[in-house]
């Protein structure tokens, strides 16, 4: 049995994305495909050229991940880049030992280096709505104030609101900013009607 028989193409994509810093940033899917090929070249190569990645095979990992675990990935509006959600980061952490054992050489794959906080997180941390929540646990009721924080309009589609919120949550968790993560969770709970599907 091959050591990667119990690792799916979706697992490969998620692990490769994590390796490339996808907990912190959006990464171009083509970079993720190449890293996936480096991790499992025999699985993802051309049938007649083991040294070349097969784009269709590599992209299957992305399709499978989004079909089977859609809550683990965020994508840019143009569809070219992906980032791990909070749930995606948790999934990688839960499966890290299994994936390392099967996908790494004797040289362990290094963890992604910590990156500076995103500008959006720094701005959030300085915002009045965050400071109000931090001081007294109150989540602002004015939708325009949260829209300003999420860089969208109050009447933007709920899908956009969800995407902006999840992007910030993922970045906050990756940076270890527990308080900001809790704040964003509180916003989602307190104002679920701003983010919930089927309420346009």
What series of H and E elements makes up the topology?
HEHHHEEHHHHHHH
Poorly predicted ranges? 1-5, 105-116
Largest beta-sheet characterization = 3 strands, antiparallel
Proportion of helical residues: 55-70%
User: In angstroms, what is the radius of gyration?
Assistant: 19 Å
Structural write-up:
This protein has helices at residues 9-19, 29-39, 41-44, 55-68, 86-103, 119-126, 128-136, 143-150, 158-174, 178-190, 192-195; strands at 27-28, 73-75, 81-84. It has a three-stranded antiparallel sheet. It is elongated and about 60 Å long. The chain is mainly alpha-helical. The protein has two domains: 9-103, Arc Repressor Mutant, subunit A, CATH 1.10.10; 119-195, no CATH class. Helix content is 58%, strand content 4%. The termini are far apart. The chain has eleven helices and three strands. The longest helix is centred in the middle third of the chain and has 18 residues, at 86-103.
In short:
The protein is mainly alpha-helical and 200 residues long. 58% of the residues lie in helices and 4% in strands.
């Amino acid at each position: 049995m091959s050591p990667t028989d119990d690792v799916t193409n979706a697992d490969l994509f998620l692990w490769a994305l994590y390796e490339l810093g996808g907990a912190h940033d959006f990464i171009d899917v083509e970079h993720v495909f190449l890293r996936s090929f480096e991790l499992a070249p025999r699985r993802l190569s051309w049938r007649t050229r083991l040294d070349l990645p097969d784009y269709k095979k590599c992209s299957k990992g992305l399709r499978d991940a989004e079909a089977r675990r859609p809550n683990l990935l965020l994508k840019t509006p143009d569809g070219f880049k992906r980032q791990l959600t909070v749930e995606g980061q948790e999934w990688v952490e839960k499966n890290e030992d299994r994936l390392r054992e099967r996908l790494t050489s004797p040289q362990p794959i290094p963890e992604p280096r910590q990156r500076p906080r995103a500008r959006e997180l720094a701005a959030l941390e300085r915002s009045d709505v965050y400071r109000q929540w931090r001081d007294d646990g109150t989540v602002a009721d004015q939708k325009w104030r949260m829209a300003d924080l999420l860089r969208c309009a109050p009447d933007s589609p709920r899908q956009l609101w969800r995407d902006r919120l999840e992007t910030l949550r993922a970045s906050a968790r990756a940076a270890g900013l527990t308080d900001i993560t809790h704040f964003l969770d509180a916003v989602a709970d307190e104002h679920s009607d701003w983010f919930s599907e089927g309420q346009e």
